[in-house]
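Minutes, methods subgroup
Present: GH (chair), OT, SY

1. OT presented the first of two proteins processed in the latest run. Sequence and structure tokens recorded below as shown on screen.
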Amino acid sequence: MFSKHISSVHIISLTLTLNMAEENLSTITELVLVGFSNHPQAEIPLFFLFSGVYLVNLFGNTAIIILVLIDSCLQTPMYFFLCHLAFLNIFYTTAVVPKLLFNLLASKKVISYELCIAQTYISLLMGAAECIILSIMALDRYVAICYPLRYLLIMNWSVCVQLAVGAWTISFFASVVPLYFTMLPLCSPYIVDHIFCEAPVLLHMFCADTSLQETMMVIGASGTLLLPFLLITLSYLRILVAVMRMHSAEGRKKAFSVCSSHLTVVTIYYGTGMFMYMRPKSLYSAEGDKLTSLFYAVINPALNPLIYSLRNKEVNGALKRVLERLSVSQREMILS
């Protein structure tokens, strides 16, 4: 009898919670997105700065994808995964930057509830996918340097496709799914003191205790941040040992040159990502977190194509070949 009473109390409690959540979701249409409104004098300069960074991101990452598609010399496992990285950089920033730019010029700084939740899911998915893809790229470099004669056999196209599909699938189930099933109703005032909506910020807006959500975020970050980082570290330790054993100074220089771009991207991305997602809620700082998120969600995606192309002879060579082809075709059109 007592157990039946307890069960009925739980059912009533759960029903009330669900009703409150449904009512909450149905009444929230938009939230205030603070962004940089605390510094109104900086909004116009920031608009032009972020517009330029966003255009560099779009142009650079799109150029990498096009170069890989049309130049056979770049159709290797390394550049296959670089295309995935370029795609997620474009998708991530497109979910964030246009609304950020609009609010920099708007007098009413708001974001719809649906777009806010979409930004949260997308930032989690793209962040997790980038970590895993960066670890796969480190593994690819390890196989290329330590097993050069068996490289194409080990990293064949079937394996590459399976790794890519696995990266996106794991990212989805490790980031989006847990948040979907633990999402809580938001409490008023509906103010997002950030530049876009992401999980660590929403934790401060939930109406109930967020211990479970914080724990799941740390667990998810451990799986999508720490484990890939461990794989990257182990891969580069093995690469370092292999490079040190090389007798040719030119060979060592080439190996380090191939890995330097990837290491730079990993260092920038993981430094900011771990700070944002692997710390307790008590260490939250609105202004500091805006700068951190700005770096890995807006600036870093624009830096990636520059880092991978400026010192990369293969990419520069492919770009020259494409430009030469365009020049020749234009001359033929003029002559005809």
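2. SY then presented the second protein from the same run.
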Amino acid sequence: MAIISEMQEEKRPSVPFKASLDPSNPLGFLEKVLDFIGKESCFLLKDSAEKEIATAVTAAKERLKEAEKKKKAEKETVKPNEKNLTKESVPPVEPMEVEKPKKESLKPTEPMEVDKPKEEEKSCPIVPNKGNGLDFEKYSWTQNLQEVTITIPVPCGTKSRSVTCEIKKNRLKVGLKGQDLIIDGEFFNAVKPDDCFWNIEDQKVISVLLTKQDQMQWWKYCVKGEPEIDTQKVEPESSKLSDLDPETRSSVEKMMFDQRQKQMGLPTSDEIEKQDMMKKFMSQHPEMNFSNAKFN
């Protein structure tokens, strides 16, 4: 697992994109674009990469449809004028006026298709703090597999009766009475409200403890709207893992390994095991021809 993390942290050299579009093979050009994005950014490692690409394709189709509608509308407005033309009118002027809008109508579509990927490439996960969470101006949060802890600094001398805190299954509201809420949003995942609580430490810090409902998953953010952390950089406490029974600890370590493998586009532990079994079977039966076999 250490080797995998080192490979992942290697810096990729920046190389200028060079490719030409062959109208007879547009998919070939698109594959080169995706390969370039994969090498130069972490966009394709995102879980939502396929959805975002599909959304961009849908938006491009809609823009092309709108451009086609404009062309048809322009042609319809030109046709009646052509019927009313006389020999005394000047024919060369009319086609010049019709061709100009056609070229201009294509201009907005080209920069829009280029700008979208650039914006998406910038939204890469953030390295978590030492507590596997993030620090903000008004609060910070940390986590382990079982719990999430939120720490909110407040004016010294604040008492519990001045605090308003509402913890629901999927939402949290925290603040001081008579003031705007400090936190008001949805959780990354559900919690167990009956196992959650809050208190004031030294009358200057509000501490909120949240018990995760799914205790086999790292949260990418605490409250919706926050930047996402890179869960591959999460470092579980070794002491906590050692407290788990062997079966649970093995499941946790397997889950973390498989998660990293998927994000890197590599086979999971189950897939590796199946590949090893197939290799062993093939070595035990050299008389069999597997050249045309298809493996799922």
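Chair's summary of item 2: The CA atoms of residues 266 and 272 lie 9 Å apart.
Next meeting: continue with the remaining queue.
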